[in-house]
Amino acid sequence: MKRKNMRNIIQNRRNLINYCYFISILFISCKENKDILKADMPKEYSIYYKKDTIILHNEDSPSPEKFVKLNNEYYLIENGKKKLFFSTLSDTIYYDIHEEFRYKVEIKKINSSKFKTSYYYFDKVRDVKAFLFSFQYDINYKILKIEKGGTIDYLPR
């Protein structure tokens, strides 16, 4: 009888310890730890395809960017100057100077049906090349993906 009582006492203690353990796990797991991170960027891009023009607009930009088709390539017209921006004809690298800043533009063929234009900030003195953005597009110049700063991808919905 004493042995049976002793077993019951030990079993009751184990049950109590397990119960306390279970309750403490519940309290710990119910604690909410929440962070909200937001990025200061446009939520989406609107892309309009017209006969010989691509118009790109985002809600943070006061005016849309306009790319005009000339000789089967698309050029950005800026301050009366045309700058090659989309090409499916050949890989191209050129440097662009805008308000004292120097940029490197790389237009490359990814595969037989996909192309990419990348824009970099380029500081020759400090030997710094920082990725700013890229556009991936198909052979018909339909924009497939916009990548910003190497970490933010805008894809079709």
The number of E-state strands comes to 11
Which geometry do the CA atoms define?
Answer: elongated
Taken together, the total number of domains comes to: 2
Kindly estimate the percentage of residues that lie in beta strands according to DSSP. over 45%
What is the C-alpha radius of gyration, as a whole number of Å?
A: 30 Å
Biggest sheet layout:
6 strands, antiparallel
How confident is the prediction overall: mean pLDDT?
78
Which class do the helix and strand fractions yield? alpha+beta
Neighbour order of strands in the largest sheet:
6-7-8-9-10-11
Low-confidence stretches: 31-38
Helix-strand pattern, N to C? HEEEEEEEEEEE
Termini separation (Å)?
Answer: 73 Å
Q: What is the count of helical runs? A: 1
Bin the helical content.
10-25%
Task: Fill in the keyword field for this structure.
single chain, 157 residues, alpha+beta, 2 domains, 6-stranded antiparallel β-sheet, 5-stranded antiparallel β-sheet, elongated
